[in-house]
C-alpha cells in the first residue's frame, strides 16, 4: 500500500518470523529428544514457510473483512471475528499436514522417519505461533493504525494545514500521497471483488458446472490409469544431474560392455575373521567357488 499508515510491511515480516520461530521450536524439541538430524530435514523449513505464510494471508484477509464489517468495534470483538473466520481453515490445514507427516513415521527408512518427525512437529508449532504470536501482532498493528503512526518509524503522522507547505517527497513518505491529502481507508480488496462479482457467478453457471464435472472426471480417470502404471524401483541415472559423468557410465555399463551379464551378487562376511590365516583364506575361496 502507498499509505504510510495502512502499509503492512511489518505485519508480513512478522508472519515470516512466525514460521521461523516454528522451525526453531520444532527442530529444537526434536534435537532435545535425540531424534537424528539427517540431511533431508534441511528441506523442511521451506515447507513450514509455505504453510505459515498461507496461514498469515488467511488471518490478514479475515481481519480485513472483520474490520470492514465492524468499523467501530473494539479489538476483542474484531479478533474474535477473525478467529471465527480463519481458525477453522488454518486448523484443518494443520491437522491434515500433521497427520500426513506423522503417518510417514511408520516407514522403515530411518531418514524418512526423521524428516517426517521434524516436519510434523514444526507444523504443530507453526499452528501455535499463528494462533498466538501472529494474532497479537495483528492487534498491535491495528493499534498503530488507529494511532495514525508511520509503518516504519511508528511516529505519529499529523495531517493538517502545514502539510500543504511541504515538498511532494515529504508528503509521499510521511502521508502516502503527493497530493497533500491524507490517504483514505481502503475498501474491499480488488481480488475479493473479482471472485465475488465475476468468478463466483461464472463457475455457478449450469454449463460451466457441467464442464467442470466432465473435466474432473477426465482428470480422475487419467490419475487412476497413471497409478496402474507405477512400477517400484529407482533408476540411478535420476540421482545425478543431466551433465554428470555418471549417466554415460551407467549407459556403457548396461548396454555397451556388460549387457549380457545379470545383476551383481555380493557375499558379505558378518563376522571378524583371521584373514592372515591361510586356512581361513582357503575356506573363503572354497565358499566363493561353491557359490559360483
UniProtKB/TrEMBL annotation:
The chain crosses the membrane at residues 12-38, 44-63, 83-109, 115-140, 207-226. Keywords: Glycoprotein, Membrane, Transmembrane, Transmembrane helix. Belongs to the patched family. Residues 1-140 form the SSD domain. It comes from Sylvia atricapilla (blackcap). PROSITE patterns: SSD. It is found in: Membrane. The keyword Transmembrane helix applies. This is PTHD3 protein. It is a multi-pass membrane protein. One of its GO terms (cellular component) is membrane.
Amino acid at each position: 500500500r502507498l499509505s504510510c499508515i495502512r502499509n503492512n510491511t511489518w505485519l508480513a515480516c512478522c508472519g515470516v518470523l512466525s514460521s521461523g520461530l516454528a522451525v526453531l521450536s520444532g527442530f529444537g524439541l526434536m534435537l532435545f529428544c535425540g531424534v537424528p538430524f539427517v540431511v533431508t530435514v534441511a528441506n523442511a523449513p521451506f515447507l513450514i514457510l509455505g504453510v505459515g505464510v498461507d496461514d498469515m494471508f488467511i488471518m490478514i484477509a479475515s481481519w480485513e473483512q472483520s474490520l470492514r464489517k465492524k468499523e467501530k468495534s473494539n479489538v476483542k470483538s474484531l479478533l474474535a471475528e477473525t478467529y471465527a473466520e480463519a481458525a477453522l481453515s488454518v486448523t484443518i490445514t494443520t491437522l491434515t499436514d500433521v497427520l500426513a507427516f506423522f503417518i510417514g513415521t511408520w516407514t522403515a527408512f530411518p531418514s524418512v522417519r526423521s524428516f517426517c518427525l521434524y516436519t510434523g512437529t514444526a507444523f504443530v508449532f507453526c499452528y501455535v505461533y499463528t494462533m498466538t504470536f501472529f494474532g497479537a501482532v495483528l492487534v498491535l498493528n491495528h493499534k498503530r493504525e488507529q494511532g495514525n503512526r508511520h509503518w516504519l518509524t511508528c511516529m505519529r503522522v499529523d495531517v493538517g494545514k502545514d502539510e500543504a507547505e511541504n515538498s511532494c517527497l515529504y508528503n509521499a513518505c510521511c502521508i502516502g500521497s503527493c497530493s497533500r491529502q491524507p490517504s483514505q481507508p481502503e475498501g474491499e480488496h480488488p481480488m475479493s471483488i473479482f471472485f465475488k462479482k465475476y468468478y463466483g457467478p461464472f463457475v455457478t453457471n449450469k454449463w460451466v458446472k457441467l464442464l467442470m464435472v466432465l473435466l474432473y472426471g477426465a482428470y480422475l480417470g487419467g490419475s487412476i490409469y497413471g497409478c496402474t502404471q507405477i512400477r517400484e524401483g529407482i533408476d540411478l541415472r535420476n540421482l545425478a544431474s543431466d551433465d554428470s559423468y555418471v549417466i554415460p557410465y551407467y549407459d556403457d555399463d548396461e548396454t555397451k560392455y556388460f549387457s549380457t551379464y545379470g545383476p551383481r551378487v555380493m557375499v558379505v562376511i558378518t563376522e571378524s575373521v583371521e584373514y592372515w590365516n591361510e586356512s581361513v583364506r582357503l575356506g573363503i575361496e572354497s565358499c566363493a567357488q561353491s557359490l559360483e
